Amino acid sequence: MKIVIMGCGRVGGLLAGMLDEAGHQVTVIDVDSWSFRWLPRSFNGKALVGDGTDVETLRTAGIEEADAFVTTTQGDNRNVMAAQAAKHIFKVPKVVCRIYDPLREELYKSLGLETMSPTKIGANVLMNIVLGKGG
Amino acid sequence: MYILVVGGGKVGYFLSLALLSEGHEVLIIEQDSNKCKVIAEDLGSVVMRGDGCEIRTLEDAGANRADLLVAVTHRDEVNLVACQAAKHRFGVKRTIARISNPKNEALFKLLGIDVTISSTNLILEHIEEKLPAHSMSHLLTLEDGNLEIVEVNVLSDSLVAGKKVSDIVLPAKSLICLIINTAKGAQVPTGSSIVGAGDHIIAVTQPEHEAELRAALTGQTG
């Protein structure tokens, strides 16, 4: 699959490396080239410096041919904006959007985005561990 | 009207001042405590500290009874999310977003933001009006009909100079409605009217056909 990832932090970098190793064609975008240190040394995909909320940057990253787009920046609003551009302008078949804020996640899920809230998932996992129900 | 203003910077401040003086009920949502203090001192208790993208903040601000939300922070993505949350979560009828990157205009429209104001485009349009190289300028955008009215200055080397209106090939959904000649004044053209160098053409088109219309009337593609 051709996959574009926006945001190369701990999660974005790790995900990019994992997908690359699994044989996918990965392009990762970040506003700061220093973030690419999170990519594994073995990374064979493309790393592009740019703002993923700008449609031109997305085009350069190959969004028009992409099978999937994942947003993993620290900013919920940036993630939501870029994900909606990918879904509604570029018609990317699979768009996944990370949203920390659970209430905002609910809103965008109801608007048809495929969303993931690490806050909600993390809290649930921790609760289960605390209550001895396993991770 | 009850109007929520997201962002208490310069634009939000002066916008609220004008809206208050017109008798509207206004609440500014601003994150920065110093800005909040200044606004409260100057305009009274019309400011709430918080993030206008947070559902809870909007709830506390009474978004469910707001008639209008205007998002004027300097961040396009913040303005988008504030408008979408207001519209879809609280049923706010009308949302207006300020845009810095003109390329975002299409996305915001597509996502149902009612009005977008791009200061970059506004300034650019004023510059274009003064430059002969840009011989086509916007006069008016009709939001509901997805139509715009443009003015084209016919230069002597223009493709259409000396042509009959019926011989000009226009893009879809475009119409020449007025030809303004310095000597003869404004005339509603017929098919046999001739476009002369120095005339001004007033035409109606759709935003997506604007570039084609420009090319058809001026020969410029940029």
Could you characterize the architecture of this molecule?
- The complex is a heterodimer of chains A (135) and B (222).
- Chain A has a single domain (2-130), classed as Rossmann fold (3-Layer(aba) Sandwich).
- Helix content of chain A is 40%, strand content 20%.
- Chain A has helices at residues 10-21, 55-60, 76-89, 102-110, 118-130; strands spanning 2-6, 25-30, 46-49, 68-71, 94-98, 114-116.
- In chain A, strands 3-2-1-4-5-6 form a six-stranded parallel β-sheet, with helices on both faces.
- The model of chain A has no long low-confidence stretch (mean pLDDT 96).
- Chain B has 222 residues and is an alpha/beta fold.
- The longest helix of chain B has 15 residues, at 76-90.
- Chain B has a six-stranded parallel β-sheet, sandwiched between helices.
- Chain B has helices spanning 10-21, 33-43, 55-60, 76-90, 104-110, 119-130, 210-218, and strands spanning 2-6, 25-30, 47-49, 68-71, 94-99, 115-118, 136-142, 147-153, 175-181, 185-187, 200-205.
- Chain A binds chain B through residues 53-56, 75-78, 80-81, 84-85, 88-89, 101, 103-104, 107, 110-111, and chain B through 53-56, 75-78, 80-81, 84-85, 88-89, 101, 103-104, 106-107, 110-111.
How is the topology of this model organized?
The complex is a heterodimer of chains A (135) and B (222).
Chain A: E1 2-6, H1 10-21, E2 25-30, E3 46-49, H2 55-60, E4 68-71, H3 76-89, E5 94-98, H4 102-110, E6 114-116, H5 118-130
Parallel strand pairs in A: 1-2, 1-4, 2-3, 4-5, 5-6
Chain B: E1 2-6, H1 10-21, E2 25-30, H2 33-43, E3 47-49, H3 55-60, E4 68-71, H4 76-90, E5 94-99, H5 104-110, E6 115-118, H6 119-130, E7 136-142, E8 147-153, E9 175-181, E10 185-187, E11 200-205, H7 210-218
Parallel strand pairs in B: 1-2, 1-4, 2-3, 4-5, 5-6
Antiparallel strand pairs in B: 7-8, 8-11, 9-10, 9-11
